[in-house]
Structure formats: C-alpha cells, structure tokens
Amino acid sequence: MLLLLVFSNNYQDYIWNKLARARVVARRTRRIIRQNLGWAACYNLIAVPFAVAGWIPPWGAALGMSFSSMFVVFNALRLQRAGPVIERGRYTSDFSSPYPCGVDPAR
To answer: CA nearest 90: which of 81, 82, 78, 99?
Structure first.
C-alpha cells in the first residue's frame, strides 16, 4: 500500500478499476460454474438411471449428453459476451471517464 501512495492519483484509480473489474468477473465466473454444475448434475441424476433401465435407447442417451455438453459450453461462452462492468460503487472498467460509474451527471 505504501508503494501506491507514491504514484499519481490517476494510476491509483486505474489499479482500483482493474481490481473492481476482476472482482466482478470472478463473481460472474463463479455463478456460471455453479449453473453448469447444477445443469450437469440434474441431467445425470435424471437421464443416467433411465438409460441404465433401458427406457432411453443408446442413441437418445448420446444425443441428450451432447445437448447437455453444448448447453454447458454455450452457458460458459456468456462470459465473453458480457458487456462493460459497472459495479455498485465508485470504480468502473472504463478508465477514460472522470465521473463515478462512468455516468456524466450533466446528461
């Protein structure tokens, strides 16, 4: 912390912006990981016993597993589509804006 006091205020804001963005991205990542684990667990709890009992043909089980995998992959890809991060508070991912949360109060 002592080192940060030596740098200018702009650099400190830049660092805080990066830390705030990392925190929000980590929260989004954890949420999507939980969703993927929940989906996979539900699918396996429902479909695997039906497949073992013979109520689902092998091609149906394979098709269901491929759809489950595609759902997990597309759900994880939502992280890349996420827009700019604005967290409740002072810091944003947009360093170019001098206003809190990137909002101009004059507008």
So the answer is: 99
